[in-house]
């Protein structure tokens, strides 16, 4: 019985195809008694382009090992992003991560992803196709990626807002 359940989980993992993109690879060193110990840090964005995205960091003695650890970490920290019919976000939002701030606004269909660096990678892997984003403050790729994920995590759909307020969705649109 238990083996059947394991097989089902394994096939489910294969069905959900996650893409991974390396945002940054950096050689880092630690000073130890014998000298300097070199290792690599990889920042990886993982997403399925259908509303799920995560950021992972991995460190290892070689680049491939660091990337693998980063992918595993990214899959552990997945968030769900509510997307509109035009593959944009439902409302403007801000996010912070360390000293980095990210400002995001929904855009009209056909605009594309107007964002730079790590934020662009995160948005593309989340499945957002039309958005305006601006990085403010730090230009550190890890903090900018975390700020982008933080901004996407704060998004709420109209249905969620209506449910929280205890009113029907139609009442939200009254001008």
TrEMBL record:
Domain of life (superkingdom): Bacteria
Pfam families: Ribosomal_S5, Ribosomal_S5_C
Domain S5 DRBM: 18-81
Keywords: Ribonucleoprotein, Ribosomal protein, RNA-binding, rRNA-binding
Keyword Ion transport: no
Record-level GO BP terms: translation
One GO CC annotation: cytoplasm
Molecular function in Gene Ontology: rRNA binding; structural constituent of ribosome
SUPFAM superfamilies, sorted: dsRNA-binding domain-like, Ribosomal protein S5 domain 2-like
Protein family: Belongs to the universal ribosomal protein uS5 family.
Biological role: Located at the back of the 30S subunit body where it stabilizes the conformation of the head with respect to the body. With S4 and S12 plays an important role in translational accuracy.
Subunit structure: Part of the 30S ribosomal subunit. Contacts proteins S4 and S8.
Domain comment quoted from the record: The N-terminal domain interacts with the head of the 30S subunit; the C-terminal domain interacts with the body and contacts protein S4. The interaction surface between S4 and S5 is involved in control of translational fidelity.
This protein's name: Small ribosomal subunit protein uS5
